[in-house]
Write a structure and sequence with these properties.
Elements (H helix, E strand, L loop, with lengths): L21 H19 L3 H15 L9 E2 L5 E3 L2 E2 L10 H16 L3 H14 L4 H13 L3 H14 L4 H14 L2 H14 L4 H13 L3 H14 L4 H13 L3 H14 L4 H13 L3 H14 L4 H17 L1
Antiparallel strand pairs: 1-2, 2-3
Helix pairs in contact: 1-2, 1-3, 2-3, 3-4, 3-5, 4-5, 5-6, 6-7, 7-8, 8-9, 9-10, 9-11, 10-11, 11-12, 12-13, 13-14, 13-15
């Protein structure tokens, strides 16, 4: 799953003019809209099928019924496969359908298919900014950071007043370790949207990494003011409180995180660690047990945390 795309991808409108014949117009439009609705309901396979159908109809000449999908869901015309170099543009819907199919494919974990669809959308319509944006997010997931930055630069140059592309570019730069540049992007995202709780969390995490503990605390507090149910903000603030040796405060934030989402294994593990440092071994054991029950894959990491904590306590 390309989880990073979940809250950031721009989904495209169906308000387009068609050049195919009237019957094809109705079928292509209906397929496209049905794909959008299925996507919003989480039916990504159904969405992919509907967008593929819309592509088939809208990208061939009116009256041409020769198109047949290949194994990748792309279509051939007169025996020539559609590709980035040879897309037969008949209608602007084609590019939009490719761009939206890319989003559905990204949700299915098909990064290469998503990038290929964005490439096809841009081959048809080089000005389709949504395709650059969606492709950037997939590149980020694949850790192709330079390509992600390049696409986000295009988006920002076109829409310099939109907060989200700055926030995402900051996220890429933070993952690259370019924290100073990431902070500039997060600052800009917040300046453009002062109520963007996720951007405050992003900046708070970056500030914590560079040692700006008070600034990080301020950002997480602000995120909580904006959205008191944001688990990520409590998690981040708990980390700052741990850095400041406020273990009771950290436990309080991890507890709130668990209250909001009882299935967060890492929240139990982190709260257990704070309990252990406070000498509350029984409470810590319960938290560690619950964290592993929720996510057995973190068992080895939890065991390592416990060993490290006990080694510190022994030295003290």
């Amino acid at each position: 799953m390309l989880n990073r795309c979940v809250g950031s991808v721009l989904f495209l409108s169906a308000c387009l003019a068609f050049t195919v014949n009237a019957q094809s117009y109705d079928v292509a439009r209906d397929s496209y809209e049905r794909g959008r609705q299925r996507f919003l309901k989480g039916d990504f396979d159904g969405a992919i099928n509907d967008f593929t159908r819309a592509i088939e109809i809208s990208s061939r000449p009116a009256g041409d019924r020769s198109g047949r999908p290949d194994s990748n869901g792309r279509f051939e015309f007169s025996g020539v496969p559609a590709s980035v170099d040879r897309v037969r543009l008949i209608d602007p819907l084609t590019a939009m359908a490719y761009a939206n199919r890319a989003v559905a494919r990204s949700r299915k974990g098909d990064a290469e298919g998503a990038i290929a669809d964005c490439d096809l959308a841009l081959a048809i319509d080089p000005g389709l900014i949504h395709a650059y944006y969606n492709r950037a997010l997939v590149y980020w997931f694949k850790k192709d950071f330079d390509l992600a930055i390049s696409d986000l630069d295009r988006v920002i140059n076109r829409n310099p007043r939109e907060a989200e592309p700055y926030r995402n570019r900051g996220g890429v730069r933070a993952e690259q370790g370019q924290l100073a540049r990431a902070l500039i992007d997060f600052d800009q995202a917040i300046a453009l949207n002062p109520l963007h709780a996720e951007a405050y969390c992003d900046r708070g995490e970056a500030r914590r990494k560079v040692g700006e503990k008070e600034g990080a605390m301020s950002d997480f507090n602000r995120a909580i003011e904006i959205n008191a149910r944001m688990t990520r903000a409590y998690h981040g603030r708990a980390g700052v409180r741990k850095d400041q040796n406020d273990l009771i405060g950290a436990i309080s934030d991890y507890s709130r995180e668990i209250e909001l989402d009882p299935n967060l294994a890492t929240a139990y593990a982190n709260r257990g660690l704070m309990q252990l440092y406070l000498g509350k071994d029984a409470e810590a054991a319960k938290d560690f047990e619950q964290s592993i029950r929720l996510d057995p894959s973190i068992g080895a990491a939890v065991d390592q945390l416990i060993r490290e904590a006990r080694a510190v306590l022994k030295r003290e």
